[in-house]
Structures are given as C-alpha cells and as structure tokens.
Amino acid sequence: MKFGPIPLAEAEGAILAHSLRLPERGRLAKGSVLTADAIATLQDAGHSEVIAAVLEPGDIEENAAAQALADAILTESSGLRASGAGAGRVNLYATGPGILALDVPRIDGMNAVHPMITLATLPQYQRVEAGQMVATIKIIAYAVPEDALKEVCGDARATLRLRPPVYGMATLIETRVGNETPSRKGRAALAERLDRLGLGLTDRVVVGHVETPLAEAISDAAGEFVFVLTASATSDPHDVAPEALRRAGGTVTAYGMPVDPGNLLFFGALGEKPVIGLPGCARSPAMNGADWVLERLICGVELDQKDISAMGVGGLLKEIPTRPRPRGGDAHPGD
Asked: Is the full-model pTM beyond 0.85?
C-alpha cells in the first residue's frame, strides 16, 4: 500500500486519509474512496492534491481483512457472534452468559505478525453476559498485505470461545454457632452471583458449626454444586469445614489463595460435585477471590492448587468497606 500526498489527477480510486471540509459542499469523510465526481469537487474547491492510501496488488482492504479474521476465529461452538465490518473493525460478542476462554500464546502470536492487524480482548476467564463485547478486531491501516493476513488467520481458529455454565442448581450450606440463625446477607449475595450465570439455589440449609452435621449436610445436598459458608472463618486446612468435606467422603483440592479479599477459601469435590468453602467476604456482593474460583468451576474449568497460587498477580482487589479487619487497619509498616 502506498500512503502520502497524491496529485488529484492521479487520485481516482485512492482512499482519503483525512476528512476535508468543502465550502458550501459539506464534508468529505476520511476513508472515502475518491471517485471522479469527488475529485472534481475537490478541484473546484481549490485542492490540487490529497493525502491518501493507494492499494497495490496483494493488499486486502481493511473491512475485508477484519471480516476475514473474524470468520477465521469463530466456530459453530465458539459461543460468539460478530458484528458487521466498518472502518476496519469487527466486534465479537458473547451469545450467552459464561466466561471468556482465550488461547493467550496464540493471540500474542497473531498480534505479532503485522502491527496493522490487531485483536484486543477482555482478560482471560472474564465473566460475561449475553450481548457483551468480548473482543475487537481492528485493521489499523486502510489495507494489509494478503500474506500477513493469511498467516494470522491460519492460527486464529478457536482462539476465543465462550465457556457456558455446566451446572444448573447449587446448594448453600450455612453454619451457625449456638442457636443464632445466620443473616440472609450471605445467601442473597451468592444468589446474585449465581443468577448472573443462570444457576438457582435449593432450599436453605443451616446446621451447627460442627463436623458431623456439616458432613451430613454436604452428603445430602440436593444441588449439583455445593457451597459452604461458615459462621466462623476457616483458618486452617483441617478446620471444621474442610474436615467435614473429607468426612463426607470428599477431597480438598486447595486451601487459601493469594487474592485479597478472599484468602480464606477452600475448594474440593464430593464425587462429581464441586464444593467451595466460601470466605467471609463472600457475604458482600463486592468482587473477591471466590468470584474467580466459582465462575471458573461453574463453567467447567478445572482448577488445582497451582492455578490458585498463580492468581496473586492482579489479586489485590478493591477493599470491602464492611470488612471486619481491613488490611489498612492498625497494621505496622512491614506487616
């Protein structure tokens, strides 16, 4: 592609690079293909040249290039749809709720092929809703080399896809100390989180903060996915709730996470049912580490301790104002 000043006498078919206002004739928009009539209008307005782009053999026009890349990315099972192309851009949208799964190394490779061919996405495993934009393809120049576009498209298939929820109903088990019934605040916050992914909650289950009744409640849970919200924080891998899961015949996959708020989380499974021990901060609707874990598990992403340990970079989340012990608190420098 050639780009720069072009005499009007040679500009027919070129793409105008900058908008021009013409006295009493309105505006000739950037990106306009210069026709004979447009050139005559410019000449009448006193112009002798324009800054424009001229496509050469082997160049692919920006909209055609953006559409070709979108077509290469999408599959019937991707859970995504594309907008029409315009100004070298095609946007990709989620067709339902879920999380966005990305092949990050391949996307990085695609963006490294040619600086004028770009793909920008939401972060890995971002929760999305139906109709939400998840990525945008932008061809920065008015055209790109066909060879470069073919290389990018050749590695684009299924680099983005929506992972939808794979469960439909969950059970929340709450524990109490003494005879005091827990506030419904925690249940309401979880119900809101699950509703965003299309999950419902079974009837309320409240048991004493003791291993045996909690283990029985886990075993008897009617939901396909089990959450445990304890009256007293789970402060050790062998505290009441993790031990109750083990006593029920389940396994504990991970305890603790380098995400704050959300440190005191554990998760595991009872047979095919995922089980998450929620941290106390899950009683607030504010984002915390539990969101990252439950969204991924609900959408069928397998997690282990290594995955949790890798969440520390970016894991310092916004403080929850109602937190009993804010991290600012009375801590001394160095704590």
From this structure: yes
